[in-house]
Amino acid sequence: MKWIDVYLQEVERRLPEKNREDILLEIRSTIEDMLPENSTEEEVKGVLQELGDPVKLAQGYSEKPMHLIGPRYYDTYISLIKMILPIAITISLITLVAENIIGSVDEGSLIMMILAIVGEGVWRVISVGVQVFFWITIIFALIERVDLGIDDEDLRSQRKKWRAEDLKKVAHVPKKRAISQWEVYGAFLWTAIWGTVYFHADQLLGIYENQGAGLTFVTPALNQDTLLSYWPGVVLVIGLEIALSLYKLLKKEWTKGLVWFNTVQEFLSIGIFVWIITNERLFQPAFINYIADLFGVNAAQVESGLTWRIAAIFIIFAVWNIIDGWVKYKKGTKKTKVSHELVK
To answer: What is the domain count for the chain?
Structure first.
């Protein structure tokens, strides 16, 4: 009949080619079983209405998703875009300012510099936004297709009617152990800022003086060549921090695996950055002499004092992060055990 043929046609053009004929025979057989003998046009339309939209019916038989980003990953996809986009824009703008801030800035050139930063900044923001959206979408589209089996199961479960019993499958996250999106966002942002400053230290960190006509960058504090000689270790730390932030985003709570990951990452960071800080060629001699003259002390004392003060501050913050992670995990674990005992 015409109604059935048109319906099957709509299903057919959306089916995988290798098993298309078998699926169409199955659907046609189902329709015929649902129809009485000598069925009327209204009865046919009623059966087709019961089967539903041919697009959705075909999707149920398809071996690949008919969407770019499906419901399983959509929330995470949007969350990552919201997190990474402002971070990427921040990095881009910091780099732009660093490229334009070096040297003397008189009143006339200051206006030109600001106009250049604003004009270039608009284009960089647009470019960064497009790049972030494009690459995150590509990554999630690939994940959607590689992790197909799990996604299909989730989609099928979403079609079922929700029951209170389904809550048994959802793990309860104690508040003490919960990781907020703001915490993850802060971790991403911090990694982006310090990584950008590290690779542009000679343009951002140093002595600035107001010499009446305008702001002057007197001398950089750090030797950029020395910093760049440690780039493999620094990139490793950045990669681990990003991986840790993504792990937090996925877990949403402090687990034993997460706190151990955090501990190893912090100890590795301590080792690498103390190694960098104690390099005797790290500080620019002109910067050390400037500070020594300013406070009337020996240059060697200034360099030694800066080295160990910076190292101590870094170690204190790293150890604090390790302890904080373990404390949150232990508190949440105790609360969970108490809850289970009360339930029993």
So the answer is: 3
Confidence of residue 4 (pLDDT cuts 50, 70, 90): confident
Task: Say if CB 255 and CB 329 are below 8 A apart.
Answer: yes
The answer to the question of residue 82 being in a domain is yes
Domain limits at 110?
A: 65-152
Position 296 scores a pLDDT of 79
pTM of the model: 0.59
Neighbours of 122 (CB within 10 A): 10
- The confidence score (pLDDT) of residue 228 equals 92
**Could you tell me if 176 and 317 lie in one domain?**
yes
pLDDT tens digit sequence for 44-102? 888 888 877 777 777 666 655 556 666 666 777 787 787 778 877 777 777 676 666 55
Q: In whole angstroms, what is the distance from residue 131 CA to residue 92 CA? A: 12
The pairing of beta strand 215-220 with beta strand 206-210: antiparallel
Q: Are residues 318 and 177 part of one domain?
A: yes
The kind and range of the H/E element at 97 are: helix 71-101
Q: Do 244 and 97 fall into the same domain?
A: no
Q: At residue 2, what is the residue type? A: K
